[in-house]
Fold:
Amino acid sequence: MMDVTDENEVETENAEVQLPLSTQFTPRAYQIELFKYAREKNSILVLGTGSGKTFIAMLLIQEFAHEIRGSICKGSKRTVFVVNTVTLVGQQGSAIEKQTGLKVGQYEGSKGVDNWSDKKWDGELEKHEVIVITAQIFLDLILHARLPLRRVNLLIMDECHHAVGSHPMREIMREYGDLKRTGVDECPRILGLTASVINKKCKKEDVSQNMHELEQTMDCALVTSVDPEEALRFTTRPDEKLVIYNEVPLTPYREMVEAQLGGLLCEVEEQEGLNEKVKKNIKKSIMNIKHIMGSLGDWCVARAIYYEKESLEESAEVEEVPVVQEFLVRLRTRFEEIYDQCVSRENLMGNPKDHVSHQALRLIEILVAIKSDEVAGLIFVERRNTAKILYDFLLELAKANEDLNFIKPLYVVGANTRPGIDLKLAELELRKQKKTLDKFRDGQANFIVSTSVLEEGVDIRKCNAVIRFDKPANYRAYVQSRGRARAVPSKYILMVEMGQHLSFINDLDVYREIEKTLLTLCHNRGSPTAEEIQRHFNDDLLPPYEPYGKQGPKVTANSAISLINHYIGKLPQDRFTTLAPDVKYENFNGMSQAVIVLPTCSNVKEQIRGTFENNKELAKKSAALHLCKILHRMGELDHRLRPTVPSVEMLADDLLDLKLESSKAEEPNLGTKKHRQIYRREVHSSFRDSEGTTFYLYSVEIHPTDDHSREITVDSAESEDTMGIMCKRELVHCPFKLYGPKIGEVIIKVKHLDTICDVSCEMMRKANHFHKLALESILPINKSLMEFDPKVFDSGLFIVPLKDNCINFGLMDRMALLSTVKEEIPVRSGQTYEFDRDLFENAVVFPLYGDMHQMHYVTDIKDNLNPRSEFPECKMLYENYEGYFLTKYGATITNRLQPLISVKHLPKELNYLKKVPVKKKGNRDPQYFIPELCGILPFRASLWWHLSCAPSVLYRLNSFGVAHKLSLDVGVSSELNLASITAQTLDFSWTERVAQSAPSDVNLAVALSQKKTHYIYPFMLAHALTLMAANDGYNLEGLEVLGDAFLKYVAGEYVYLKFPDDHEGKLSPRRTLLVRNKTLFQLAKRKAIPRKIQAMKLQPRVNGILPGFGVKKSVERELREIGYPSDKWHKLPVPEKLSDLEQVIKWLGAEEPLDGDKSDKPPTKAACFNPWEEHEVSDKSIADCTEALIGAYLLQCGADAAKDFLHWMGIGVHKGQKLLKDNLPIKTAIMQDKPWSLARITCFYKKACLDRLEDTIQYKFKDRSFVVQAVTHPSYTQNKITNDYQRLEFIGDAVLDYLVTGLIYSRHTSYTPGQMTDLRSYCVNNETLARAAAKHELQKYLLHMSPKLQAAIDKFLQLCQEKGLERALVTEDEEDDVEEIEVPKSLGDLIESIIGAVYLDSNRDLEITWNVVSVLMGDVFQKKHEDIPMNPIRLLYEISESVQFEKGKRDGLAMYKVKVNGKLEVIGLGKNFKVAKVNAAKKAIRRLQEMGS
Structure:
């Protein structure tokens, strides 16, 4: 093993001799000798610890490096370094990377490699030249043809003595042998590394045979240095000592305990219903206690019992057989009684060393003898419990004895592999091991008590003492543990009991003799012959499954069982269930046949039988191999013979006619809020130009409503001049309201007046000109940026003046003479200005001085004031009004007697779409102008007020037209004509009105399933196409909530019925494919939905619809090339020379004031696009619009129409077939149609008292198989007739979600979409459902075989009964490694599965299903939003001054760190980032509450 902790060592693996850095890479003579040998032929290097085996391997890697430099796709090979442990992957990988210039990949299980795709592996193998990998993972790569051995140039096996039995190293070499038989030239060079050829206890005379067997396995010759003395100089050579201890006589205390333990052994033997495996494990626990009593003495007895007591408790929790589980619980109670007695006795004991065994005392003597400031030692023991208890003893010993306080112990044991131990706990054990070794390396501890886990492989601090508290079991353990004494000098101390010492001394002699023999026999050895190797591997009598030929992936008899276990591990299961195949054996004429039955959620329902074989092990392999063939043919194993992970393309098959896009590198994922694209905004055909000279003439009538909060009354009925619209196509219109800050609330009615044929060119010229000047009068159009050209900009709509519902040609003629509405009035030299009252009444004026852009409307003519009247402000500066205008603006007048006019500013923001609160302004002094100094617009103010509504009117009319075109394309609203549309007023609250139209006692979802309306108004679809960002009177969010629930419901129902054999783990991805944002976005994009969306707030001068106007094409090209932000286009002063444009932009950027935001984050820059023709929309917003459109069709037209819309969109459409409208049959839950099937269903029905469940839910099942399936937990393996409840839970979840949404949508119409979502989430979350299940005692009917689940349910029921329980419980989905689960998900699943069962049994009747839901959850539905707990994240923000979340990863889990108020920091973990963030918020809230209390 290479130790890279000291860079000045020649060979960092336990080297005793250190050389200067300059000679670090100078190889020793024997290393050169062995390197040359290994370069020429396959070899196993047999060298002692510290002699530099790894360095020789490094030399060989570099020697063959030219073969691995380059792309593996173009023929380059790879070097593979196989290790036996996870720890060695990092150690050897880091060493190779440090000492060579090669790219090294490191692969072990914790990286999730089992779930890597071909693409991921291809990328890893392409970029890495040396692969350091654990044996099992490399074997998998070979068997699944991801890295065949023919693509490997050099295969190095570290610690190759493990290649025995069924070890993955041996299986790798089996594959090597197969390759060699087909083509020797393709085989890699093999290099084995070992310090111990013998991996088991053997006699001296068997050494040669064991050596030859290893050579046959590895196809290598064993080799060591021809000069063993030279190699031994660099090999670990500690001073060996043998310490003998006496057996301690049996004390009365130990005699009492042993008697009680003997009684327990008798009970175990007499207990009926215990199989031999259980008895063996219990006996082992008792013998472990006896072993501790004998080896450590009286002081450690209670600790030994406690350790085994905890072990029994863990076993009892995972035990599924009731008889066994009950006995284990009873046994644990007996252990508890004995433990209490022992604690009482041991508390009276004083110093630990006065009450321990002679062996422990001898250990103390050893520790005292080797005491020094630099002491660092390992104490090897045989058992895990010995390691932990000996550590505890040494710790207490150091505390109680001052002369022993130099002892600073730690302990290391391997990860627990007992069945049922959570993998998280095993990972925690490994992390703890790393921390322990780090402390030992840093000198915080000087002794480690360890099991064999530290004998080899693990990189640790150099030790000057290694103590074998328990003697080594075999030669390998002797050699490897001795090799840990690496310091110079060092001691290797072996402890043995008197009476066994002679036998052990004989063993030591054998070990030393073996060592010498190995050095002698490892010279001039020939490689094994092909015949010998073939005979050696003849233990695999079953041919492999090779569906793709010899060079393709394969399943062997030895790999089949692990592959099946891996497949089962992919099946859905909760934390209370460990799925496993059921294997039984049948015997005939001395032969065995294995029968395998997979869990019911697997697609293989029948029994799988293997061939009759000579023994059970081979019979099981035969059945497993046959099962793998079946799984592959069913598609459950992929082309690599791995459990199939359905790709998006596979899922899309039979569900979508859509080529699914992939996200581009370095870009946000498709379908997300962050992924935004630019689309051309759709303009309805009535706004565009078209052939012909026929025009439709419309009046735009504006009438005030009863709202009196207005300054100006705009009423077309009382105005002489009004606004009209000419266009070449019919407008889609209906009455709607606008809300102006000065005009208040008005209603707009567009009426068709006339169809004008053969419009002359002259009339068109005048209409165009009026339209241009009209828009320029209300908006400050940037003429350096924009131009007016209806032909270029495809405009066929014009605003015209009306008088008495006819075109006002007189006004058009007068304005045709003007180039602008703000023409300067020529100064009349020598003439006195004459005031004309008629011109200023109802007029719009602008100053002829200063800023001429400011326009005002005249409110009054002040006959009592004239230019000589006293100026109200700054009297010291200005004597009168004449003086003010002369001094400030240099404006002179000729008529000092003319009256002043009172004026007010005209509004600049002309977005009247949404009612906004009007800020009350204080009483200001009126503003007065001198008429002589004013220009006048060529039309009255009353017409200007009409025109000011034009941007909002055009926006609304276009949205109606686009929505109507969409409805015609969809085809659902075919019965609706334009006349019908005109009759219906836009109602922002139409959703509430329709929702409340359903009978109060009928769920809205039920009512909509029966509703059949064949029309939908354009404003309803426009509602669904309007984003929140548009700041309109309505937005899509409420409809999105409804559409989302409906889509999830119909998609869930379809995939459930379409794929009756699929388990929940396959159904969910299929449904997700149909309902996910990415799919909805892509389908919507195909239907041009993004173009129809109203995505931006209307700002007429920034992004409004301005028919005839557009950005100059040359300017637009320049701005796009520069990438100028769209939100700045409208105010950009474009120079005459476009070549100067970039310089102007730079100057403007330098002049812009800094934003108030002082954060380090760079300011967000808007995208570059033409804001009058395009908009930027996120993928998620497009998907939201799609769901809102579903909601609109559902609410207005009913469920069938909503499905028709889904079909039009392409959701659930395959080859033109409307999948979501297929009337698929509902199949019974009975999986096997056998004569006894119904009888078995009846048996389970009665056993679980399901007739009483039917009474509880007030529903009688017609097909009892549904209710049996609904109560079958995955752990209940006795039910082979139906699946477990997970499929029913899947459909029940969708049905419940839709029904609850229907209830909330109709009952709480005043709620915001966010409040609706919160309330729905509360009603259907796991805790709410679990409480409902507890209230109705549904747990009584749950069929399961999980004591752990029962304990969790019991605890939850107890919590539910506690009065005043206010704290939020933690659900399984929210679990992290700190918090205990308190809400069993199975109870919530039970509610959903019952709902799913009722839904199917009632032939998908939502009304019947809702009645059952109401029975189970009626009290829940009485709650209002204010009654439910707030989302923890939102609550944390509300109760804190500052909150900062930081995302990360820890131990393979998602992590969020939250910092509150700049001080408090907590961490939340979870299976995903959403759960982790909720956990972090919950913890922070609890901490804040604790700090406050």
User: Anything to note?
Assistant: Residues 322-346 form the longest helix (25 residues). The mean pLDDT is 85. The CA atoms of residues 1335 and 1416 lie 9 Å apart.
